[in-house]
Write the structure tokens for this entry.
Amino acid sequence: TEIYTLSLHDALPISLRAKLWNWTGFQKREDQLTILLSLVIGILVGLTVVAFILLTGRLAARMYPPESAVWRRLLVPVAGTLFSGILLYRYFPNARGSGIPQAKFALFLQDGYISLRTVLGKFVCCSISLASGIALGREGPSVQIGAGIASVLARRFGLSKANVKALVPVGCSAALAAAFNTPIAAVLFSLEEILGDLHAPVLGSVVLASATSWMVLHLILGDEPLFHVPGYQLVNPLEFGIYAILGVAGGLASVCFVKLLLRLRVWFRQLPPSTVWLQPAAGGLLMGILALIRPEVLGVGYDYVDRVLTGDFPVKIVALLAVMKLVATPACYSSGNAGGIFGPSLFIGAMVGGTVGSIAHTLFPGVTANAGAYALVGMGTAFAGIVRTPLTSVIMIFEMTRDYSIIVPLMISNLISFFISQHLQHEPIYEALALQEGVYLPTGESREELEGIHVSEVMQTGVEALPLEADMEEVKARLDKEKTSSWPVGNNSSVQGVISIHEIETAEPPPTVARDLFKANGDYPYVHADHPLSYALERMGAKGVDVVPVVSRANIRQMYGIVALKDILATYGVAGTKGKQ
């Protein structure tokens, strides 16, 4: 007897199968495979990140247990960074750094290519260096590992370069969802920072992989938030002023962190290439020296953050730890170690917030909450200032703590920190790191700058459309006068279409009046005043014209003015374009 196993897909009639795929919108084989791979990526990345968390945590517990000898605090970070530095230098040069810039390099410069060797190297080197106690985090490396797994799978299944690139942010989102236990923030970060586009077409795949990875995390490690926070209540509206001060403090700390990291990185890059293998040990040595003073500075420090969030801490130690981590993390990162800045930024924020909150509670005990509430807000404040993803930071803190009541103070403090950081350190940290490599990446902020010039800033107002009954001589005279090859046609302020010299010369039979060249209800190019100039250029190129009417959003026949190609080019500083054809 032969046994046949049929999948549900095979059991369905071909016609019904086609209808189902048509209903989902995934009619191409690659679209179907992309959705399936999003689920597989979520599972594999979730399992990998769980293994990463368990491995680094257990190794760290063995390398420097809480009551270990003092010599371990100095020796372990140096030995760990020296060993991982040799591995990075000889075998895994692409596994250095946090992983976020590297994932973006792969996405925008390498058609989504990340080698399996880099994925393995990142996992191994980060496990060693993070377990040795350096002041870096696991979330950034997890992102590169997740992106690498997605890239390897996509290539092995023979997907096109476009679909390989599309799956890179899917892997990033899955990794961050498991590393931080924050599926929503993971989606936002992948779109806000990795892609720089919150409306990216890969949104569905990103959400699917993030949710799948998060479920894997919960099935293995259980349903526990990353931090445990006591209930928070606003004691007095005057507290909002304290949270504003915390935003200023967090913003200034963020600027100091980023500037120090970038300058130290420039200094290390100027050292002889023959010392690259040894440089990571410099960060480990500084880490060890600081650990002799306060052992709490070792590692990412989430355990101590959890304690600070309860309000149980001496303010002097918390302030000291904030300064220590503010120095140690840039040193460890800039010296070439493998590790991220997400976790340390949360630690720094918690210490800064705890310090501000403790001082405020001492001075104004009747109108301020427990200092732990300020530590919680400080975490998001530092993250918003350092990483420059304010929306992600708000959602992330909410997901990590599951405390909704803190959202409004968090938004106030985050906004102030983001504003200060943006004005005192113009380039976001990942963009600045890329620039140090000589790479110009599109980011959320740079996209906004490119789209910052809108049609309303360039459009000409008070212009008149050509009459529908204008003869060809009148049309040509207007085009010659305006020094353009096209112009709107209509009655008064009501536009009916756009006429061009090319249409006049190629039309059969030859037109006698402007109305002959188009139908009154036909499609014609137009833009709105709030459109970016890039969109106006696209409309011009699609229709082969150099002038398009600017119309109302409520009535596309109501013309406010025109935007001309020569004015757009002049706006961008292209010499010799204005007034010429």
